[in-house]
Structure formats: structure tokens, C-alpha cells
Design goal:
This protein is of the alpha/beta class and 399 residues long. The protein has three domains: 173 residues, Aconitase, domain 3 (2-Layer Sandwich), CATH 3.30.499; 95 residues, no CATH class; 119 residues, 2-Layer Sandwich (Aconitase, domain 3), CATH 3.30.499.10. Helices cover 40% and strands 15% of the residues. The chain contains 14 helices and 15 strands. The strands form four sheets. It has a five-stranded parallel sheet with strand order 13-12-11-14-15, sandwiched between helices. The chain has a four-stranded parallel sheet with strand order 3-2-4-5, sandwiched between helices. β11, α10 and β12 form a beta-alpha-beta unit. It starts with a helix and ends with a helix. It binds FE3-S4 cluster. The site of FE3-S4 cluster has 16 residues, from α13.
Length: 399
């Protein structure tokens, strides 16, 4: 890979340890994937923030980099393993909180914004169309590529961090127009009736379009929240972190319809629900906010919970970023949700908090949330819209 004189100096250690290590990572990656050069990026989203996933080895790695590493571009963080301000209410242990805070201290020293959300685009890390960025977190990467039209590969935590210290990333994969051409036509002949249908649709398309870029027809309209949910699901279940929806997402007008065609029908959506939903009735955990809730979603949760009481044996989380929670405070949604017995889980989520063994069954609006709850946290899962999840929280049953 070609390196400029300035980049060589970074690789030789002239800008210190963190930049040298970062250049080693970026050069190794570039060489594996055949990049010709590094390109400038405008922002970074770093995943791998929860101590639950990092462990002591990860914390040590971050502390080494934090000794002299400072990010060169706008850099935000994915969710951590706990609410950073009120972790006790979520049942997090003191030992875990201590370690998680050390992880956060290391990121803070590097100059990273402690945003702790997987929806950075809702709180100020919003690239423009065609901009090169280096993001990790699969749902955010898919949203950035597909809904915004920015250009990023699906980075891992270390490669995103390396890009932040250097301000550049290797130019390969989805940074090149020729690799952003769709390769499978997905014709959607489905009545998308409720919010969770978007997660189910992502499940169907992800499974069918395994490691391909879907060009989707048949969808006339979609809200940002629906697209956010679809992004999380389609990439979790198998597609590349980029899709086009004809007439809705940027760049779709420039693409030719691929020859390979699949059709998604109502019976596929039914089957998706059958596969995602376990055969259980009793629910003891409800989580809304995967990806993290927008203010509209929180408004809907509050509306559904008005004058209701969540059962004492059901844990109810609204996972969101702290700035969105502050909007919810001002709008009075927080009070309604907390009066009903719900909790805000800022800075964290159902997949990265240490939840294994705590809950038997979760109800959620997110197909991605079901994937991780079942796989990583060994819970039974139910996928439904906000009303169905709220209903499970107040009745303890799935109906
Ligand atoms: Fe975000 Fe956690 Fe879901 S990172 S997309 S809320 S699994």
C-alpha cells in the first residue's frame, strides 16, 4: 500500500506509540484487503466499549493507547455495559461498574465523546452523503451507508480506533464506488403493518441475501425509525452493511436492477416471526431501544404506558442515548415511564450489559435484540411492536 511521507513518519513512531500502533493496524488491514492507499475520514464510531466484552485484556490495550493517543476526527462511542450515571438501578455490580468506568476513563483521555450510543447520527455524529467515515457497530454502519449514503466498511473496535488516531482509513471495500453496486434484487410483496415487521423483513432479506448488497423494490415509504430497525436486522441476519430501497434511499436512482431476484412474501414474514419467537408465555424482561430509541419511540412508549403499572417481577428498559433521554425529561415522557415502573437504560443496551442468567424471557421490538438475547444471553425471545411489549410488561404474558 502506498504511504505518503507523513504516513511513513507516523508508522516509524514520530507521533508516538498510539499513532504508530494504529498505523501498523491500518497498514496490515490495507494489505490484506488490497487497498492502494489511505483516505481521509471525517468521523469515527468506536464499538467494543462494554467491559463485559473487553475484559481486562481489552482494558489494558486501551490504557496503553490512552497514554499518548488523541483522536484526530469527531469520534463517538457505542453503548457501554451499564448506565454510566445510574448503574445501580439496572442491577449492575460494583465490581463491574469500577472496571467499566476505567474503560470510559481511557476513552475520555483519548478525546473521544462519551456518547455511548449506537445511534450517533441522532445526536450529532451525522456524516453527509458521499463522505468517508470509519464506523464500527453493524446497525450504525448499515444506516450510514444506506440511509445517509456515507461510505464506510464495517470496522472492528481496534481498526475504528486506529482510524481515529490517524484520521484516515485504508481505501478498500465500501469506500470504492465499484464495490457499492447491488447484486441481488429483492422484491418486497409484503404488507408492513406494524413496527416489528421491519425487523422481521430484515431477518428475511438478511438470510436470503447472505453477504450481498440488496436492491429492494416494493417499499413505498418508511420512517427513520423503521429504517433504523431494518438496518440493525438485515445486517445481523446476513447481508452486507449496505442496501438500496428504490425511490427511498440515496443513490438508488443510479443503480441498475440486479439480475438475481428474490421475492419476499407475507408468508416469509410469518415464518420469520415463528423462528424468532420462542414458545413461551411468561415474560420477565422487556427492552425497547435496539438500536437506541429516538424521541418518537420514547413518546410512543410513554403513550402506551400512561396510567398503567408494570408488574414488579418484570424489568422494563428504555435504552437510549443520554441526550435523547434529556429531551424525554423535558417532554414529560420520563416521568410517565418511571411512574409506571419502567427504567431508562442510558449508555447501554440489552446485548452489551452483563445480563446472562438474570432473565428467562425478553420481549422486544428488535429482531437484532432477539438474536443477541437468545445467542449471547440465553434468553427466550418474543418480537413485537411497542404496544405488544408494553402489554407483556403489564400483564407478564405474551398475547
Ligand atoms: Fe444498539 Fe445494542 Fe442493539 S448496540 S443495535 S442497542 S444490540
Amino acid at each position: 500500500m502506498y504511504l505518503t511521507r507523513e504516513e511513513r513518519k507516523m508508522l516509524d513512531g514520530e507521533e508516538g506509540y498510539a499513532v504508530k500502533k494504529s498505523m501498523e493496524i491500518l497498514v496490515a488491514l490495507g494489505e490484506i484487503f488490497g487497498a492502494e492507499k489511505l483516505i481521509k475520514i471525517s468521523s469515527v464510531q468506536v464499538a467494543g466499549v462494554s467491559y463485559h466484552n473487553l475484559g481486562d485484556a481489552g482494558l489494558e490495550f486501551l490504557n496503553e493507547l490512552a497514554k499518548d493517543g488523541k483522536v484526530k476526527v469527531l469520534t463517538t462511542l457505542n453503548p457501554a455495559g451499564m448506565d454510566l450515571e445510574d448503574w445501580k438501578k439496572l442491577g449492575i455490580s460494583e465490581d463491574f461498574a469500577k472496571k467499566q468506568n476505567l474503560v470510559i476513563d481511557a476513552f475520555r483521555k483519548m478525546g473521544i465523546i462519551i456518547s455511548c450510543t449506537c445511534t450517533p447520527y441522532l445526536i450529532g455524529n451525522l456524516p453527509r452523503y458521499g463522505e468517508h467515515i470509519a464506523w464500527s457497530e453493524s446497525s450504525a454502519v448499515t444506516f450510514a451507508n444506506s440511509v445517509i449514503g456515507a461510505m464506510t466498511n464495517r470496522e472492528g473496535g481496534p481498526s475504528a480506533l486506529a482510524a481515529a488516531f490517524v484520521g484516515k482509513t485504508p481505501c478498500y471495500g465500501l469506500h470504492l464506488e465499484e464495490n457499492r453496486v447491488p447484486d441481488v434484487h429483492v422484491d418486497v410483496k409484503v404488507d408492513l403493518e406494524k413496527f416489528s415487521d421491519w425487523g422481521a423483513l430484515g431477518y428475511c432479506i438478511g438470510k436470503e441475501a447472505e453477504n450481498k448488497i440488496p436492491f429492494i423494490t416494493g417499499i413505498k415509504d418508511a420512517s427513520i425509525d423503521e429504517l433504523k430497525s431494518f438496518c440493525a436486522s438485515v445486517v445481523t441476519y446476513g447481508s452486507k452493511p449496505l442496501f438500496y430501497i428504490k425511490g427511498l434511499t440515496p443513490g438508488s436512482e443510479k443503480q441498475k436492477i440486479p439480475k438475481e431476484k428474490i421475492t419476499i412474501k407475507n408468508e416469509d414474514i410469518r415464518e420469520a416471526y415463528e423462528n424468532i419467537n420462542d414458545d413461551i408465555d411468561e415474560i420477565n424482561f422487556v427492552c425497547i431501544g435496539c438500536p437506541h430509541c429516538s424521541i418518537n419511540e420514547i413518546a410512543e412508549v410513554a403513550e402506551s404506558l400512561k396510567d398503567k403499572k408494570i408488574l414488579p417481577n418484570v424489568e422494563f428498559w428504555v435504552a437510549t442515548s443520554r441526550p435523547i433521554k434529556q429531551l424525554a425529561d423535558v417532554r414529560g415522557y420520563t416521568k410517565i415511564i418511571e411512574d409506571a415502573g419502567g427504567k431508562f437504560a442510558c449508555d447501554t443496551c440489552l446485548a452489551v450489559a452483563p445480563l446472562k442468567g438474570r432473565f428467562k424471557a425478553v420481549a422486544t421490538t428488535s429482531a437484532k435484540g432477539c438474536f443477541y438475547s437468545r445467542g449471547t444471553n440465553e434468553m427466550k425471545t418474543k418480537l413485537g411492536d411497542i404496544k405488544e411489549c408494553v402489554n407483556a410488561a403489564v400483564s407478564g404474558r405474551w398475547s
